[in-house]
Every structure is written in structure tokens, then in C-alpha cells.
Amino acid sequence: MAGLLIILFGTTILYLFAAGRIESFVRTLALQGFLLFLLVVIDVGEISFLNIAFLVLETLVVKTVVIPFFLLRVIRRNEIGREVDPRRPQFFRLILAVAIFMFGFLTAFWAARTGSIGQPLYFGMSISMIIASLFLIVQRRRIIIHILAYMTLENGIFLLSLSVAHEMPLLINLGVLLDLFVGVFLLAIFFNTIQDLYDRGTIDVLTKLKD
Amino acid sequence: MILLLLLVPSALGGIAWAVGRRPITRAVLLGAAAFELGAVAAAWAGMDFGGAAGSYLGLDSIGLVFLTIMALVFAGAALAVPGFFQESGASPRKEAVFVAELLVFLAAMTGVILARHLALLWVFVEATTLSSALLIYSEKKKSSLEAAWKYVFICSVGIALAFVGIILLSIGSRSVDSLLFSDLAARAGEINPFWLKLAFAFILVGFGTKMGVAPIHAWLPDAHAEAPSPVSALLSGALLNASFLGIARVQDIMVKAGLGAFSNTLLIVCGFLSLLVAAAYLLQVVNYKRMLAYSSIENMGILCLGLAFGPPGLFAALLHSAAHSLSKAAMFLTSGNILGLYGSKAIGDVRGLIVREPRTGWIWIVSFLAVAGFPPFPAFISKFLLIQVFFAAGSGWMAGPFLALIAVIVFGLGSAVFKMAFGDPPEAVPASALSWKPDVSAVVPQIVFLLILLGLGLSLPETVRSVLRTAAGLGG
Asked: What ipTM score was computed for the predicted complex, to two decimals?
């Protein structure tokens, strides 16, 4: 069951690369949050009640509801609908996504053979999600996509941290979540300001500072 | 007790934010600076701040070195803040918010220095990014928005990769089952070398982004140039050091695990790349604040090189970090005065500083001598020690490229500094700049920093030497 969920999580990479509308990108983000929530409920072994409660709060409330909802509001406020990127055909994007997805499986296979990782599938899929997010950040010019890809990067890292059997102290988890939370809000505030000042939210406007 | 170091600045920041009246804001800021200096003085006098082995926070020798540097730089920046607001004519409310952000930033940096747990250190490093982002954007211009965006985004992604490193480290250290630095260092031999190496690479990229070493330095010149000068001084003089401390703590684990050769290679590559990038850009830079930022990249490279050469190298790096932080803070604070006097950040627009405002002009020149490492300033001693360490470790050939790059950098910096200081002042200066004059608080911190450096350079006091030796792992 957990394996299926992780593979579902991995397939969201395909969707992220193919998505044409930015709102569907955000829905994928919420779906990822929900999959992570299910994984926490099904698969996390012996950890304290407080920690479980925290993880449920983090995945179900923050990752599935609060952050996607907040980002949707930012998107509607700025009236961004479609991600138009004429320079790269969708076919090319999908090939890339499939390649990264395959890489995730290969990594999982390799990690299983080395034997030092308890749950190779977690490892493989989270690494490919991290790589996919970095690709999105480097490739796309829309700033809002950068924020969304930062969130999927965080989701990939979260999956990776679930694969570590022993628990992080609760205090640390709280700190990590707080940082993530503030980070997303801050990025969104800056994004709103960029959109207001330039009336265009792509990185092409951010080229004033250079040597 | 140790928690006070975190709570007092945060609480004072809260007060400044809640009250929002100018006299209170300024009193709070100076109070925080005095508290930091007092705490550091107490620590030097041997006061125990608590934090037994196994706790998450604690103050060790290397932490004390960086806490001291931070307290001094912060005090200097705090004195410069009122002048900065006079210059910009902002409302009391704006000043209060700025000071509150500054104090939260201070608390976050203190957290990085005190953290004894790898993941907690990560949390605080991320907190420094978030608390300083708004400070960089405080002038609310398009260019500062661009700088703040690049800063938050690049550092957040970098820091996320550092967290991947931390997770990889905990995969490799299942038998240790703890991320306290003391446990990891004591049982470094049990950590799986493959995962530890991978973890170090990720952590170096993550904290290295924050520290501004090449090739992951992209945010640094923008943020330093666009932030208000007191903030630039803090970024360069305190934040970069705190990130260096994070790398140094993980490097300690690498050495104890017998993987020093791997991490040293990475550090040396980053170190020389930083020198190279700084040298290349310093020859053509046109903005004097960006020039100072590139010089910071150079000095972070020197710290990385020192860290790669064991305890004697770390001793040189720590001394260098003190030398760089105080002199660079002096230069950044002075750059604020120059901006007030000329109304431009372009090197070409500034001429005849010595004639226009002799105090500022001379401070500018002397701080340059201190940054560049002319004797008797301590940056000379630290670079000299580093070259000695190269030869002692059998890597004497490194002294060649090291000295050559330093020479280019000093030439680049020096030609700009002297062009700005001498010559005839330009006739066309913005009207707002003509009436502005730096008051005493805009020159005293720099003079104090330079006097401290002069003292350290002429004779390093025995207590300082012994703390530096303990911090570097050479034994008291």
C-alpha cells in the first residue's frame, strides 16, 4: 500500500511537467500533501503520539490545505491563468519528466542493492522529486512556478525525511515547519510586490543587478 | 541562562515593534547592543552560560569567537542606524519595524552560533535568511526587491539542499542515532563513510550558499549592495561567519571520521574559486558596495582554505575572520557615509573624499589597508600564517596562486579606493547630498573597530590567543 502511494507521489512529477494551467499545478501540490498525509498514517512506525499529531498537522493542514489555498489566492489576485512557454514543446517536457521518473526507480533499485537503506522506494522517489523541482526552477521563467517548485522540493525532502526511521526531535520539526511556512509567505509577498511593480511576473524583469 | 542570549534580543525586538515610537526604538536598539557586549564580556571573564553536554544550546570557544565578533559588529551597526534613518527621512513606525527585524536577525544569528545540534543549527540558519530578507528590501526600490528576491530564493533552495544533507547524514549514522555535534564527533567512526561524504557535499552547498563562497555566491553582491549600510555590515561581518561556523562543525565530524581528505579537497576548490571570482570581478566592478561584497567572497574563500588545513589552518581562519569582519564592517558603515555625501553608489561619481570629508576619507583608506591585510593589521598575520600552513602541510605550491590572486584583488580594491579618496570633488552632487554631514556616531564605530584591529595586530593578548587556540583545536 505504501509502495503504491509513493509511486503515485512519483507520478505527480509527470503531471507537474505537463500542466498547462498554473492552478492545476497548485492542485497537484495539494494532492502531494494528501499523499504524504496518507503515508504518515499508514507507514510511520513506532513514534510518539505527539510526533504523529505533529506530522498529521503538517501534512494534512499545512501542506494539503493552507499553503495551496494561500497560493491559489495569490494566483487569483495577480490574475495569472496559463503558463505559456512556447519555447519548449510539451512533448519535450514529458520526455524529461519520464526520464526523471525512471531515474527515481533506478535509484531505488540501486539503493535496495546497497542494502544500507531500509526503504529504497522512499529514497528513490524523493530524490527524483527533488531533482524534478530543481529542473522546474532552472527551466521556467515564471516566478510563481519557482515558488510552487520550491514547495514540491520541500515535499520531496519531507518524503526523504520520512524514510529515516529514527525520529527528529519534535522541537526541530517545529522549527523546520515554521521556517517553511514563513518562507512561503515571504516568497509570496515578494512575488506580489514584483507583480505590482513590474506588472509582469517573470524572471526577465529581475536583471537590473549585474556586473 | 543561555536561552537569555536568544530571548532578550527577540523580546526587545517585540517591544520596538509594539511601541513604535522613535526614542523607545533607539533605546531598545542600543540596549540590545549593550546586552550583547555585556554577555560577551561576561563570557570572556569566564562566566558559565550553562548548557551542559547533551543540551541543544551551548557556548564553546569557537562559538565565543564568533559571538564576540557579532556583538562588536552589531554594536557598530546599531550606532549607525539612527543616522541612516535621518538620511532617508523615514517615519518612526518604519524605523521601529526595521529595528524589530534587525533584532530578530540578531537572535537568529546567535542561535546559529549557540546550536549544538545539526538540525537545530539548520533551523536557525534558515531563520537568518527569513529575518534578513525584509531588511534587504527596506529601501523599497525595484533594485532592492530584486536583490531580496534573489537572496531569499537562492538561499532557501540552498538551505533545502543542506537539509537533504542532514537527512543523508542521519541515514548513514543510524547507530549513533543523534544529531548532536558532540555525539556525531565522538562516534564519527561508526558513520557510514559513503553517506557521510554525500551529506558533507550537500551541507557544503547549502551552508556555502549562505556563506557566499563561489560558485554558489550569486546572491551576495546584490544583497550586500542593495541593503542599507548597517545591514550590509551585519551580513558581511556576522552572517557569513555564522554560516562558516556551520560548515566548520560538520568538517570536524569529517576529520574525526577519517574523511578529511575528501572534505579538504572540496573546501580548497571552493576557496580558490572564490578568490578567482573575486579577482575577476574586482578588476571591473563599478559600484563600491558591490566591490566590498566581492571582497567578502574573497575572504570567505580564505576561511575555507584555512578550514581545509586542520587546527593550524583553522587558527589562521579564525583570526582572519575577526580581521575581516571588523574591517569590512568599518568599510560598509563608511560606504553609507559616502552614499550620503555623494548620493551615488558608482565609484566613478565619487572623487576627492579626503577633501570633501576628511574623517570619512581617512577611515575609508585605513579600513582598506585593514581589509587588504597590510601590516600591522591582523589580516596580514592571518594570511601569513595560512601560507606557513600551506608549506607545513607539504602544499607549498598553493602559496603561488594564493598570493597572485590576493595581489590582483588588492590591486582592484586599492585602485578604486584611492580613486575615490583623492582628486578633486565633483561639482555636480545631488542637492540632498550637499547638505548631509556624517555625525559622530557615523564615524566612531569604524574608528573603534580599526583601533581594536590595530591592537590585535600589534600584539595578540594572551587570553585571545588561548581562546583562539582552544577554538581551533590546538589546545589552550
From this structure: 0.92
